Structures are given as structure tokens and as C-alpha cells.
Fold this sequence. Notes:
Elements: H1 10-20, E1 25-29, E2 32-35, H2 36-52, E3 60-64, H3 69-81, E4 84-87, H4 94-104, E5 108-111, H5 116-123, E6 131-134, E7 148-149, H6 150-154, E8 170-176, E9 184-189, H7 190-203, E10 211-214, H8 221-234, E11 237-240, H9 246-256, E12 260-262, H10 265-273, E13 287-291, H11 297-306, E14 311-317, E15 324-328, E16 342-343, E17 348-352, E18 365-370, E19 377-378, H12 382-388, E20 394-402, E21 408-413, E22 417-420, E23 423-426, H13 427-434, E24 440-450, E25 454-463, H14 471-481, E26 490-493, H15 507-514
Parallel strand pairs: 1-11, 3-4, 3-5, 5-6, 6-7, 10-11, 10-12, 12-13, 13-14, 25-26
Antiparallel strand pairs: 1-2, 8-9, 9-19, 14-15, 15-16, 17-18, 18-20, 20-21, 22-23, 24-25
Amino acid sequence: MHPSxxxxxxxxxxxxxxxxxxxxxxxxxxxxxxxxxxxDALVSRLAAGLATRGVETGDRVAVLARNSHGFAALxxxxxxxxxxxxxxxxxxxxxxxxxxxxxxxxxTLATDSGxxxxxxxxxxxxxKVKDFLWLPSEDPSEPAPGMTTFDELAACxxxxxxVQLTSNDLAQIVYTSGTESTPKGAMLTHxxxxxxxxxxxxxxxIAEADLALHALPLYHCAQLDVFFGPAIYIGSTxxxxxxxxxxHLLPLIAKHRITSFFAPPTVWIALLRSPLFxxxxxxxxxxxxxxxxxxxxxxxxxxxxRLPKVRLWNLYGQxxxxxxxxxxxxxxxxxxxxxxxRAVLNVETRVVNDDLRDVAVGEVGEIVHRSPHLMLGxxxxxxxxxxxxxxxxxxxxDLAMIDAERYITVVDRKKDMIKTGGENVASRExxxxxxxxxxxxxxxxxxxxxxxxxxxxxxxxxxKAGKALTEAEVIAHCTTHMASFKAPKRVxxxxxxxxxxxxxxxxxxxxxxxxx
Length: 516
């Protein structure tokens, strides 16, 4: 039996939608519109073009680009060729991008005109990158000089290589903003991503009739794999934009009669505060999704009042589980405010103590999972892989309580992850950067509630005796060397930091003291 007879890959999901719905609009991005038939044929040509450039099955191909039809097509072309997608956060600095390129061993880097300089600068920092691909943007742009263009690849007439893939082959390596100073590359197979698609379709009610707006970055697994991928799998129409700001989003929703939209609470709050909100026709919107952090109850009530037709879902998970793990549905938004909901279709979730025994209702424990969504492990990192899967469960690192109905409420992060504006920030990484300042004696970085960011990165700093330091100096130092979203939004100076008798820093006390 030929392996392709039973094959189920991410690219097969697109092909099957194209066979069912060849004339249906699949992609709208700026002036570009593709039907499912056109999209599928283009993806095959792109895959063949990549093969002529020397990209082979198993090769890691990095993408440093904003949302576009080009990004969307490349995602499926890599899957069709059996190459491994490595999406990179475009807000990182050159040395941070270079670390991922080196760690992944990427020899090909796709970028767009707006990020071409960053891509070249990062690739020059002792990486293996030897080939650059230029992707078109939402708005017409000139190709970056010296790069193979999307149109050149798409014009390929060579046959697609006979790629022997299975569902267990690696589809992508997605780097997490983990708590350590270096990110970890979560290895996700086609199988893991596709089982996650099934959970999204069932639990988040993603449907063929949806007209979905994809505005948050596709480098992030939430937009890429909870929304865009399942929408292609089921046959929705997809509007892609790189501009997640109210003045752009609200008219786009009205123009295309968008029915489905995902954003972190920060973006939903920005939409509500926009002067355009009350003058824009948003009556088409039926499904609203949020994640990355909890929606404040006051905002939930405001959304229910101002968008009464919109049903809301809260989606919780992490990169390592592809990423959806639990969901709080529309009927529970105000009944269970602040909850991350219950495990989705293909996930088994528990809240356990250090002995892996279930905690009692109301007690705090760690969230652990079993699921076909889960990663194979961390790329080239057996030690951290073993720790993550100790006891034959995946350890999320999040602390939570579980109620009698098995609804989970995340109460803390075991490893002090801050979720700000939809991005993950490791407090230790920011602390290490601030410790580089010679005036600093001690520092603790915490996330504090914030009206705009939901959680604002906040540094509590103890200055060395006889030294002077200002808030502006600390922030400037961080923004010079780190992605701006990681830098503190606020710096508090203190005489000392609270610790327990064994010397452990009490960050909960800091959050209580400075959280207002």
C-alpha cells in the first residue's frame, strides 16, 4: 500500500477543502483574493519552487514576516513539501532572532519588505542562513533586493517532488518565550496540529459558513493554528490583515461582513474605546474569541451590552499543546468569570500536586495534560523535554484551581510568565537584563493589572547604596537590548524585596503591594 493512501497532513487539509469548494473564496488580503482552487494550485507551485531552491523534506524554513497572503501560502507550501515551518516573532531584536535561526539550523529565511533589514541583520550573526525569500505584503510593496521573490516561486513549472510524508512527520518548530533566558523550540507534528484543528472546530464552533478575520500575528500559534488552520480545514472564507488596530479593524469588519474574530483582551478593549465603534456597522459579527489572558469581568459585561449578538469564547493553552487545551464557552462567560473553562475534545486535563495526585476542589495545583495535540518535545533539548513530561503527563507550568464541574481557573504561573498584550514575557529574562545595570542591587519583575495591556511588565528595583538610577534609564536600557514588549512599562524603586525565611522572593507580596 502506498503511504499516501492513508496520509493526513496539513497540506492535505487544504487540498480536500479545494476539492469540496473549488470556487469558494478562501483568502482575501488587501487587493488579493484567491478561491480554494486557486489557493491549492498556488501552494503546489510554491512547494515545487522551493524544491528547485534546494529546500527538502525535513529542512527548517524560518519565517520573519507580518500577516499576508504570502505568509498563508508559504505555510501550506512548506507542509506540502514536508519542510518544517519555524515562525519567528517580528518584534524581537536581531540577536534574539539570530538565536532562533542558529538553534533551528535554518538555512532559508522568508521575510517581507518591512522586515528585510532585520532579517539580514539577524542572519549575519553567525547563522546558517544562505537563502532569502521575499513575501508580498497586504499593501503592494517592492521586493527586497537580492531575494528570491514569491512570484518567482509561484511561477514554477517543475513538477512537485514525490514527497513521502506521514502524519507523524514534523510540521513546525514554534519557539516559546519560556521562563528560561533562552527560548525552547516545541516540535509539533502534522498529526498534533490536525487533532488540535478537530478540537477547535468542535469546541470553538469554527464553521464553513464563517467569514473570519485574522488580524493577530500568524507567527503566533493562536492565530495560525486555532483559527487560520481550522478555518482552511473546514472551508471558511478568511480575511488576513497585518494591522490589528481599531481604525483599521472596525471598517474591515463592516466592509467584509466579518462573522468571526479573535483577539486578546487588550485588542477587544481598544475596539470598545475607539470613537469608530458606535458608528461602524458590526451587526455581522457573531463569534468573538479571546485568549492569552483573562477578560476583565467589567469588559465582558460591556461587550454583552454593546455587541449583544456576539457569542464569546475564552481559549486557554500553550505552544506545546498546539496550542488549545481548555475552553470557556459562550454560556459560561458571566457564570464562570475568570475561568479558563474545561478540557476540549481531544485533551485530558488535571490539576495536581507535586506527587501527581489530583488536588481537592478549591486547592491550588499545577495543570497537566495528555493529548494527541502535544508536541514531540523540545528541539535539541532532551533535558527540558524530560522535565516537561515527567510522570508521563505534560506539565504546563501554570498553577490553577479546579471546581466541582471541572472548570479550571488559572491563579498563578509556576514559572512567573507575564502575559502582556497577548505576548508572553519571561520575568527572569527581563530581570537578567536589568541586572546588567551596575547600579542595580536587586530586581524582581512582575505582571500587574493594567487597563491597556491587561498585565503590564513591572520592575521593582533596589538600587545599590550611593548609586542613582531613574525609571527612564531602566526602560531605555531594556528597550535597547530587548523586544519592546518585554521592557518594563513601569519601574518601582524599593529599599528591599520581600523574602521568606529561606530567602525565596515573595512575588505574590509584590503584586499585592504594587497592584493597586
